[in-house]
Amino acid sequence: MMNFGEEFKYHRQKANLSQQELAKLIHTSQQNISRWEKNEVEPSISFCVILADFYGITVDELIGRSQ
Length: 67
Fold this sequence. Notes:
The chain is an all-alpha fold.
């Protein structure tokens, strides 16, 4: 099972997006994306919902809770 940051990175790379591209699309900074992927900080639940909707997955899938 991947950790939280690895799961974020997996979905970003699967969508073939750079950190900068994703940041622009969801209206945050590239630094936030980097910190989330490095497990330095966790995004707010509102960003988790935005990311899950963006990728077309559930929040559980986004954070690695479902198979």
